[in-house]
Amino acid sequence: MKQISLIVATLTIIGIIAGGSLSLVNNWAAPKIALNLKAETERAIFLVHPDGKRYEEIKNAGLEVYKVFNEKDSSVGYSLVYDGNGFQGNIKLMIGLTNDLNRTTSIEILEQSETPGLGTKILEAPYKDQFNGLEVNPSIILVKGAEPSNPNEVQSITGATISSKAVVAIVNEGITKLKDIENKGASE
Amino acid sequence: MKKQVPLLREFTKGLWEINPTFKQILGMCPTLAVTVSAINGIAMALATTFVLVFSSLMISLVRKLIPNQVRIASYIVIIATFVTIVDLVMKAQFVELSKALGPFIPLIVVNCIILGRAEAFASKNGPLRSVLDALGNGAGFFISLFVLGSIREIIGSRTILGYQVLPNGFEPWLIMILPAGAFLALGLLMGFANLYIERKKNLVRESLIAQYKRVGREEITDEVLKEAGV
């Protein structure tokens, strides 16, 4: 009996000390971590809208989407965060869209775990820059081998078709979702 | 009373003699996973060393107070506390590194080097020796991760610590920064390390036999060789 109470007491004391010191560290770190996350989102929002100066989160959309304003306080478009499956894991994108949702301004990849050297080419300019001012109606189409001939076409990366496809699919799906919400909002 | 080794030995033995990666073969998961670049290896080794030193110190301080039945549970709580502190600090101050190392920081909790040193050393020795032992093992881990990370980074992406060292004409071997490359590089490194150890042993053995012959002694026995550690 004495042994058991000793064991319980030891573990309890260790637990209390560990918990106490962790809460101290967390008190110091939590605001910094929140700030870092916010700074990162902010940076990405303005990356896809370089002339943006201010942004507003659109609430109750069921999506993470921000309306971006320029220095004259007129809207320059939307920054939409949307994710989906890539080749190995999740791909999270920041998609810049014009006000009428007809074109992308550019995209930025926030998170990915594609194959280094192959799938990670989605991060590089030759692929990514295809989304600068890309027509999205009726939807973005991925072409293989040939040069894109229509304003809504994107050329696939050789050796990383699945990753290229995934990014296009995520952009298309995100835009469709956003359009649905916009339409609903207009009819209500 | 067991033989007391000099204090410095407690540190230096971790560098090679009981090197966590090459001799104890512990902590393979982070070794293989994060060494795609030298800087990742350095960061991982520093984080692990921090946890190792502080948990060894704590465990060595409280080793006589903890009942034997719950010692592992207690060690794990102590280790987990320090790992969580490292994780929070990195997320707050070193965002980029924390992103690169991702889930491997919380996984330091289950790194066998730390529990291994706690159980094999810190729970039996005083605080000073435990800290030295932890520093030595941490340094050994650092060396292994840095070497492995450098090799993989040089061949896999032509750079070391971000500086290009191989010309553009050299096509990077992508496999080196993929998981398979980690196994290849580590396996070869271990193979060379063992080859070196074997050759050294043989040299000592031969010189010993030669010495015995010179003084005209009988055939060298296995016991004598064992005593000489070869």
Report on the architecture of this protein:
The model of chain A has no long low-confidence stretch (mean pLDDT 88). Chain A is elongated and about 80 Å long. Chain A is of the alpha+beta class and 188 residues long. Helices cover 41% and strands 24% of the residues of chain A. Chain A is built from three helices and eight strands. The longest helix of chain A has 46 residues. Chain A has one domain. A six-stranded antiparallel β-sheet of chain A has the order 1-2-3-4-5-6, with helices on both faces. Chain B is mainly alpha-helical and 230 residues long. Chain B has two domains: 171 residues, no CATH class; 52 residues. Chain B contains nine helices and two strands, in the order H-H-H-H-H-H-H-E-E-H-H. Chain B has a two-stranded antiparallel sheet with strand order 1-2. In chain B, helix 6 runs antiparallel to helix 7. The two termini of chain B are 26 Å apart. The mean pLDDT of chain B is 88. Chains A and B meet through helix 1 of A and helix 4 of B.
Brief descriptors of the model:
heterodimer; A: 188 residues; alpha+beta; 6-stranded antiparallel beta sheet; two-stranded parallel ribbon; 3 helices; 41% helix; 24% strand; elongated; B: 230 residues; mainly alpha; two-stranded antiparallel sheet; 2 strands; 66% helix; 2% strand
Helix content of chain A: 40-55%
Shape of chain A: elongated
Shape of chain B: flat
Count the DSSP helices of chain B. Answer: 9
Q: Major β-sheet of chain B, in short?
A: 2 strands, antiparallel
Number of strands of chain B: 2
Count of discrete structural domains of chain B: 2
Q: What class, by secondary structure content of chain B?
A: mainly alpha
Helix-strand sequence of chain B: HHHHHHHEEHH
Please give the largest β-sheet of chain A: 6 strands, antiparallel
Residues in β-strands, percent of chain B: under 5%
Low-pLDDT regions of chain A: none
